[in-house]
Specification:
Growth Hormone, Chain: A, 2% strand, 19 helices, mainly alpha, two-stranded antiparallel ribbon
Length: 512
């Protein structure tokens, strides 16, 4: 690793205190203080990440109430979700590079304040246009906040054991955030109103900003580096094209130029971005970030798991609300056991399994478990009960995702130089976001097609309509299971054998 990485490894903690030999007791107490300080930094970073992740789903349950209040059409309803994901997904790499060039603390704090302001604007919206604008601004500031948070975590925790614990907690928050959003959205919508699904971010932001201001150290920008303007334009418009194209698939269909046209344009722009990155002196996303074998496998894992997870958060929500007639709060509570299983599994994976086994056996196993849980969900029908039929597969899925997400996040940012920590962290979030967009569009389209085919064969009676919905959910679960199975095979091939071991500077090497 570079000397720069070693020198700056402890970003986010107080400067080390040195003294004479007779001051050893003081040094020990200072060491304990620094260790405690790092865990407070983790709390701030995790809180900020939770705010960003849960906002992808927290408004979902509130959408019908917002639609009734503001009077916008069904066709416009998807833009409340899509505006956030478009801005967030397309600007992530720019946000990550700005964190490297300007300083992670500054970008983190700007992101928190901007996200809170955008949430207040959207919550106070009196018409559809202001609500969509507020959601887009949330995505923009989230694109600053998320990579800065993860890169601060990566450079703060360099000791192998502490890093494992920190990434276990952070990965659990990232994986569980969607479920927390559904629960929180249900509670706030039922007991207050839909606007509080946006106002709640102000409370998160106050604690995140105060903690960040007091606890995070100001980082030194990378010397001599410049922002890659052509690369920024290419990747921003390319990611926008991909996310927008997949978002249009649900409403326009795959044959529409609004779908395939944007997908093709996005792919061409991203190909041009890749070509440019290997030729410019100051690349936005250096190829060294992507070409490491374990890191490439981890990016693939995060994209696939992001796509597959929507089989739970989206279609299980539909099933509980529409087929079993759960209210919003009960729907959110039903997801909680999966979150608990994910958190337990995340700590086991990063603290015990990863240091001993390495990622190669852990991630494929987690993928297979998540896929098995998805396949298990396909047996649900109108007579299923929560305890006997819904809860067991949810726990299996949670345990599987807990093995996958924190391990992949840790390996995606391991051995990264200080100068690339922000953009590597942005790539992690970008892969999740693009994966989620693909998953939403693909699974929604497949489910809708399955429901239409069922009605064409069985008529349009009330019973047939109920069964068609079950058939559509089952189709989505099977495809999600297939995604996880493919992910298991890919990661088994891509990840290197061996376990990571600490080396100088606290970064990791692979023990063969």
């Amino acid at each position: 690793m570079s000397s720069q990485h070693t020198a700056d490894a402890h970003v986010g903690e107080p400067a080390p205190v040195t003294g004479a030999a007779g001051d050893s007791a003081v040094d020990l107490s200072k060491g304990a203080e620094k260790a405690n300080h790092r865990w407070w930094v983790l709390a701030v970073i995790a809180l900020a990440q939770l705010m960003v992740v849960l906002d992808a789903t927290v408004v979902n349950i509130a959408l019908p109430s917002a639609q009734q209040d503001l009077g916008f059409s069904n066709g416009n309803r998807q833009w409340i979700v899509t505006a956030y994901s478009l801005a967030f997904g397309s600007l992530l790499l720019l946000g990550g590079r700005l964190a490297d060039l300007v300083g992670r603390k500054i970008v983190f704090l700007v992101g928190v304040v901007g996200f809170a302001g955008a949430s207040a604007l959207a919550g106070a919206a009196q018409n559809f246009e202001v609500l969509v604008s507020g959601r887009a601004l949330q995505g923009l500031f989230g694109a600053l906040l998320a990579p800065a948070a993860l890169s601060l975590l990566n450079t703060t925790f360099t000791d192998a054991k502490e890093r494992a614990k920190a990434f276990g907690i952070y990965g659990a928050v990232a994986g569980a955030g969607g479920g927390v959003g559904l629960l929180l959205g249900g509670v706030l919508t039922e007991h207050l109103n839909w606007r509080w699904t946006l106002y709640v971010n102000l409370f998160f932001a106050v604690f995140a900003f105060t903690g960040g201001l007091l606890l995070l150290r100001k980082t030194v920008p990378v010397r001599g580096a410049k922002l890659d303007i052509p690369g920024t334009l290419l990747v921003t418009t390319g990611l926008f094209g991909l996310v927008y194209g997949f978002a249009n698939a649900e409403t326009h269909g795959w044959a529409s130029p609004m779908t395939w046209g944007f997908l093709v344009a996005g792919a061409v722009l991203l190909a041009a971005f890749s070509y440019w990155q290997v030729r410019t002196r100051h690349p936005l996303l250096p190829m060294r970030v992507l070409l490491d074998r374990n890191r490439g496998a981890s990016f693939t894992v995060l994209a696939i798991s992001g796509a597959g997870m929507f089989g739970v958060f989206l279609f299980l929500t539909y099933y509980l609300r529409l087929s079993l007639n759960y209210n919003p709060v009960h729907t959110g509570l039903a997801i909680v056991p999966m979150i608990g299983a994910l958190m337990v599994s995340a700590q086991l994976a990063t603290n015990s399994l990863l240091p001993k086994l390495g990622p190669r056996p852990i991630v494929p196993l987690g993928m297979l478990m998540a896929g098995a849980g998805m396949a298990w969900l396909t047996v649900l029908d109108l007579n299923s009960t929560y305890a006997a039929n819904v809860l067991p597969p949810l726990i299996v899925i949670g345990l599987g995702l807990g093995l996958v997400i924190p391990t992949a996040m840790s390996q995606a940012t391991a051995e990264i130089g200080e100068e690339d920590a922000g953009v590597a962290s942005a790539a992690v979030n970008a892969m999740q976001q693009v994966g989620g967009s693909i998953g939403t569009a693909l699974l929604n389209t497949l489910a809708a097609s399955a429901a239409s085919s069922y009605l064409a064969s069985h008529g349009t009676s009330k019973a047939a309509q109920a069964q068609s919905q079950l058939h559509s959910y089952s189709t989505a679960y099977w495809w999600s299971a297939g995604l996880f199975a493919i992910g298991a095979v890919i990661t088994l091939v891509m990840y290197r054998k061996g376990r990571p071991e600490p080396v100088e500077g606290g970064v990791q090497a692979v023990h063969m």
